[in-house]
Amino acid sequence: MKEVRGNVIVGQSGGPTAVINSSLVGVYKTAKDRGAQKIYGMLHGIQGLLEERYVDLSDHIKSNLDIELLKRTPSSYLGSCRYKLPEIHDNQEIYEKIFTILDKLEIEFFFYIGGNDSMDTIKKLSDYSILNGSKIRFMGVPKTIDNDLAATDHTPGYGSAAKYIGSVTKEVIRDGLVYDQQNVTLLEIMGRNAGWLTGAAALARDEDCEGPDMIFLPEITFDIDEFMKKIAEIHKRKKSVVVAVSEGVKIADGRYVCELTDNIDYVDAFGHRQLTGTASFLAGKISKEVGCKTRAIEFNSMQRCASHMVSRVDITEAFQVGGAAVKAAFEGETGKMIILKRVSDDPYICVTDIYDVHKVANIEKKVPREWINESGDYVTEEFLNYIRPLIQAELTPIMADGLPRHLYYDNVEKRLK
Q1: DSSP state of 178
Q2: Which is catalytic among the residues 117, 146, 148, 213?
Q3: Which domain holds residue 399?
Q4: Domain count of the chain?
């Protein structure tokens, strides 16, 4: 007989991924199978919860087809936010409000799907819960295309983003060879302080493609003069030059390269400045000083929403971490995050485990220096051996009228009023 459990609430936070909704399904289906009474979804994360915006997910996920569609639906089905909770001692009122709402909904289990900043939210809520004797259990479910969460081998969302980056890089390289004229293409790839995504451009290098000529990660200080010398040298012997560069590369004085052209005014709640324009700045400089055709391509949000090219490994693991979070919470764990532990590369085997969220929140995992070549302009074979298992296999979209079908909810806000 299925054990009856209390109510569950789940939210999504931060930048989405192509597989974040697979984790949502993992939480929903596992909680339902294990006897949860009601499973609520926060609309726009903790910020929406503070405004009492939530839905009963059973009203929206009604069939196995809905589950399969939602797994394949990009972006955050429930909506996201970038909302930083204050320190507990700075503003207890906001925590009192959150817990009043949770108590009204008779919540016993709280799940938050997100990256570094989201784990900070789980840490603070679980700490407040313990301080005030609440029985609610708080669990973090990892996701981020940036792959910069500590403790876990990798994060769900990264494998699919890497697969997209490697594929498109390969296609751009092929495109650059069309015309019999010299050209330089700069690929700007997401990555504020960690170069996991930019390094994935090296996946394009194979027997049918020579790969990008150089790759620059934010872990290495970017020397513009040295960069220009290398471009000029490669340009002399190659018709088409392709370079992958992280949006977050910095020069010696600590400024982002993109800050050398325009002021960046937008800063989010966690103090993150919006980064854009690195490739454009470098392309303009190359065009002026080298005198050839240049093109700047920003992969931008396509890196995180290309659900038509998800890795089956990635989407499966995204589901697994959601389910593992429910299992752990139902067995009494709180203040933890699910992590992935790699057991073997060949064959690839990875299992889930739990980890203290206090040792994860606000800690960035960067690409090891030994996985970047000595000259700082490419990644090593060790990096590629780490990443290749994560991009394997595909999950075909469910197509309708020639296009992928997604799951969405209609007039949710209207029904809440």
Answers
A1: S
A2: 146
A3: 7-156+307-361+394-416
A4: 2
